[in-house]
Design a protein that fits this description.
Blueprint: E1 2-6, E2 9-13, H1 27-72, H2 74-83, E3 87-94, E4 97-104, E5 107-114
Antiparallel strand pairs: 1-2, 3-4, 4-5
Helix pairs in contact: 1-2
């Protein structure tokens, strides 16, 4: 507060001007809303990252399980799916082709593999 003399009287002058019933103190609710919004968005981003990671892991586990399953059968598929953090939910074999369903977290992926005869790099095509 600054005091000024004017015509023999002392008058008090405040350095900050305020309106009665103004918007003083609005920064706290706005800041609280901003922090809350940031937390909600952050938690949503974490959940989305978990789902994306589970999807990628499920596809990798299904691919590996399908390749192992075509060579070693269901036990090989289950072993490789477990090694990749998943579990085999379905295993179908039809001749030299198989289809495997693998679940990782809440995500399920499907992969197919077919056993083909070994071809030497220098071999002629059939």
């Amino acid at each position: 507060m600054v005091r000024r003399r004017r015509e023999g009287r002392v008058r008090a002058v405040t350095t900050a001007w305020r309106r009665p019933g103004g918007d003083g103190g609005q920064a706290v609710p706005v800041a609280a809303a901003a922090v809350t919004l940031a937390l909600v968005l952050g938690l949503g981003a974490v959940r989305l990252a978990d789902v994306v990671t589970d999807r990628a892991r499920a596809h990798s586990a299904a691919d590996a399980a399908a390749l192992a399953g075509v060579v070693e059968g269901r036990l090989g598929a289950e072993r490789l799916a477990a090694a990749n953090g998943g579990r085999v939910t379905a295993f179908e074999s039809a001749g030299d082709e198989i289809e495997v369903r693998v679940r990782v977290g809440d995500v399920e992926a499907v992969a197919r593999a077919r056993l083909e005869p070994f071809a030497h790099p220098g071999a002629r095509p059939r």
